[in-house]
């Protein structure tokens, strides 16, 4: 028995297979990235709210894939004239459910990205900005979900046009949702740029770090393409089960691309394997003129004090090196750690990355040699 994945036949052509295959491929790729992300965070014992949110987004994407493929199996992708009334109602009912989970995917993904920003960019006022953005995105997502669920009263009128019901203007809602969705994508894309520009990194390292966050631009592009597809389906008398396939396809691409891009800043290892030349710039060692943070200046001062108190008659050398973990460096998000010393002092950097400088002071005298090391 042939598997029905929306391939149609000569008498009843269908474009549903495009949607069916796209849905499966995209959700599998998104699941791979989420699995790598969660595996990295769990192994390092660094699971946070951003990871929970992206896991919820993936779960909703799986349900989105299942419902949209059930719509295809029921006839979504064929011309309405080739469908029996019960087939069309079943297809549109599954499509209605898929719309709800599509908006859930977007909401959880955007909140996950903002939670990641809140976790990484710890300098004021960025935590407060992220908190406000999370509240706004959550409100936007809930509003869109409620508008989707209650677009018609009774609910059945949303998929069965033979039912007498009161419905909102779907075209106006689709336009409003598409515009606000694209706008929030661009806001999320632009938010990390100011703090990244302030990082005291070599320009090559800075470009590498910004390139990771710039991958979010792909989500903006898919949102724009989907908005264009929405515009095309609102002009003239369109067949909802036949003409909406390109729009629905880009809906699935957009939802899963958002999940993938939300995982990229956390996945240092896999990205280095795929793009070694570009991605190694963010972990390259810098010699000599590497900018220290304000806290690291205390270490050379301590070394100088020891040198001055050690006495005369010997030679002194200082040697300093900076580890590859930099404050706010997204490559080391999966390597975040706080020293016990900082934690015991009540440091406010709960989830940030502590930049440390190793200083070695060597004293060689006539009769003895001592080496003092600080971290």
UniProtKB/TrEMBL annotation:
How does the record classify its membrane topology? Multi-pass membrane protein
Note down the stretches annotated as region Disordered.
308-351
**What cellular component terms from Gene Ontology apply here?**
membrane
- Keywords noted in UniProt: Membrane, Transmembrane, Transmembrane helix
Chain ranges passing through the membrane: 20-40, 52-74, 94-117, 129-153, 173-197, 209-229, 249-267
Name-wise, this protein is Rhodopsin domain-containing protein
PANTHER family attached to this UniProt entry: INTEGRAL MEMBRANE PROTEIN-RELATED, PTH11-LIKE INTEGRAL MEMBRANE PROTEIN (AFU_ORTHOLOGUE AFUA_5G11245)
Q: Which family does it belong to?
A: Belongs to the SAT4 family.
> Domain of life of the organism in this record?
Eukaryota
Q: Which organism is it from?
A: Helicocarpus griseus UAMH5409
Domain Rhodopsin residue range list: 36-271
Q: Where is the composition biased (Basic and acidic residues)?
A: 334-345
Location(s), subcellular: Membrane
